[in-house]
Structure formats: C-alpha cells, structure tokens
Amino acid sequence: MSDQKAETKPETPSEQTDWHRILGVLFYDAFEGTSFDVKVEFDVAVTPKMVDIVIQAKKGSLPFAPRVADGIEELREHNLFTFKSHQETFTAKTLEELVGYYSGYLKTLAPLKKKELDRELVRLFAISTRRPSDVLDNPKIPSTFVTDGVYDLEYGVTPMRLIVINELEHRRENANLLLFSNIKGNVQYGMKEHQLGESKYKSLIARLLNRYEEEGDKEMANLLNPTEDDVIELWAQRESARKKFLKKVSTEDRLEGIPTEKRLEGIPAQDILKGLSPEQLAELTRLATQKPTQNPEN
Fold it and tell me: Average per-residue pLDDT in the chain?
C-alpha cells in the first residue's frame, strides 16, 4: 500500500471525530498514573470550537510524563493536539486552525485563572497520518527535521511540533500512532506490539480497523485476523526475547521461590544422583538405610 494513496471523499464531521476519539482513548492509558490529564474534543471558545485533544498537567504536580511516541515529549502544563487522519488533508490552513485553537484556549482559561495564561505554558502538536508536503515543502513555513517523522515548525505566534505517522520508526513507543497509518506494514507492526489484538485495546483496535472496512479497504481491515505466519512469527519473537532475558538472569534468581519438589519435578532419579557430591550421596544412603524411630507408646 502506497503512502501516496488516492484521495477519497471527505469525511463528515461525525466521522472525523471518531478517529480523534480512538487516538484520545489510547492517550488516556499512555498518560495514566502520570501528572497529566487527557481531554478529548476540548471546547476552546464561547461558540462551539473543539480542539481534538488537550493534555493538561494536574494541579500541584510537576509536568512529568513517559515518552508516549517520538515527538511527544517535553510536555508543558497545557498541550493542544490536532489530528488529521489518512482521509484528511493537512495544509497550512490546519496550522491556522491550531493557532486559532491556541488563542481560544488562552481566552477560555483566562477567566478561570483570573489572569492571562502564560503563553510559555502552552505547547502545540499537529499529528498527520500522511506527509503534508504543502507544509513541509513550503519555503514560507520554516521546518526543522528532528528525527524520523518528527519536525519543528515555525508558524504564527508559537512554535509547533509536527508528527507524521507514516514516517515514524518501528519502535514500541510508536505502536499506538502506527495503528493510524494507512501503510499496511506500519499497522501490522502496531498490531504485533499490541500482541495481535490480545491487549486491553482489542475493541478499540477492532473499531479502528472497522473504519478501514467501511472505506472499502479490506486488506487493512483484515489485519485484525492474524494469519498463521503472523502467529508463528510473533511466538518466535517472544521465544527469542525470553531466551535473551534468561541469559541475563542468575541461576539463583531463576529458582528463587520455587519449592524443592517443584525444582526436581520431572527429573529422573539417576540424573538427580549425578549432581550430588560423594558426601551428599553418603548422607542420602545413611538416611535411606536408617531404621525408623520407634514410638515409645507402641
């Protein structure tokens, strides 16, 4: 499947928000237990104007979060995200909208904080499934390459971080975002990192792939049902990882907490005897030939 996929009919507003909600729910878990809250479709104006996702630092907490994906790091107290799926076009107008969300967000929070919010506390993120050539190849929008799929843009009153899903490296941290790619290999990698649908996100992943089926993309939709080769490859990867891990663990640590009878279970008696020293064999012989102690009352 090529990244340069033919344009399809525009999505209706209800269809667009579905993609954002799925991404938002994945973010919920990624930031669970951290000092940040995730809010989906956050109202940033008096009139209805929703930014796709907002990640806010919890009150009284230092802004600290795990590396959710390449490019999503160094979060500030307030982080605004806009997302364009493979069915949507990411253009300079998208950046204008994000700046508009930013301005509306500042005005929305000002009455709550009784003062204007420090602009340095807000960071803008734009996520696009496909490479937005109209933006990255535009000389009027300076961009800096950070790493595969990650760019810093200079646009408007504040810098922005752009993340291109189709260009992200295949790494565990990127698995959630790669599920939103329209390139089969990327989605397959994301699926395998989620253990082929065995994760707690099974229903969300099914919902995501069902969207592909609705769009007539059977090849992508069928990724939910792994082939025999997929399963064999996954188990081979797990077995390889298990063996590498065990090589780093000492024998004492491996056996810790395992009862003696369990340790010896299934081992032939002759093999057990081979592992005993002459002193241990003599003691074992003595115990085996020792007469049981008589009970005085009998």
Answer: 75
